[in-house]
Amino acid sequence: GGSSGIGAATALELARCGARVILATRNARRGEAAASRIRRETGNNEVLFMHLDLASLRSVRAFASTFLRQEPHLHLLINNAGVSAGGTTEDGFSLPFQVNHLGHFLLTQLLLERLRSCAPSRVVIVASSAHCAGRLRPESLGRPPSGLFSTFQDYCDSKLANVLHARELATREQGTQVTCYAVHPGFVNTSLFRHAPLWLKPLLLPLAWLLFLDASEGAQAVLDCATQDGLEPLSGRYFTDGGPRVPWPAG
């Protein structure tokens, strides 16, 4: 999710710090353009595009295989891509739940051994305060919920899954020097709501322009979790731009 929004702003700052950055994005044209722009702005030529479509578990596996073959080092995985609404994926899951959680979950599992071998390393999961309204039902996990506000519920469910993923991954990786953080970047004016229902867009778009942060401001909390020294004892915690916070009860 590095071709636009918070992901692109995060990648830009990491490149400025001298990191080798892989932009894993779905759209090749936008991904190549973003990588080229970041190389030009930073003078860092170690910024590359690789194709990854989180709406396809087959694509996630192909990306991981290519990455592991080509890249010997992985110190930081930022699970940033997100959508707010959509239909059903080729794997039979709702688009938001698969893109926001399941695809990232599988990607993390496939790259986990490389993260361990390169430790100390970090996984940063871009979550949201919307996890407050999340409800995870094991018997129908990943299936579109029903009801009038099903689109919003679907998004909230995926964000709750993000928070719980960070907590559980941190627990399982104790002693490996792989740490994990869930972060709410704030309310940011990005293309996240491009898939929102048409009736909702007239309500969302003016709010986004008037009240929301820009992408570079939203990226700051993500960058803090990615680069700040001394966060290891806080692995598994939920962060906002003000630092670690107690998540909503469901999280």
TrEMBL record:
Q: Which organism is it from?
A: Myiagra hebetior
Q: Which Gene3D superfamilies match?
A: NAD(P)-binding Rossmann-like Domain
Q: What is this protein called?
A: DHR13 reductase
Q: Which keywords does the record carry? A: Oxidoreductase
Q: Mind giving the lineage of the organism this protein is from? A: Eukaryota, Metazoa, Chordata, Craniata, Vertebrata
Keyword Acyltransferase in the entry? The reply is no
> Which SUPFAM superfamilies does the UniProt record give?
NAD(P)-binding Rossmann-fold domains (SSF51735)
| A single MF term (Gene Ontology) | oxidoreductase activity
UniProt record similarity statement: Belongs to the short-chain dehydrogenases/reductases (SDR) family.
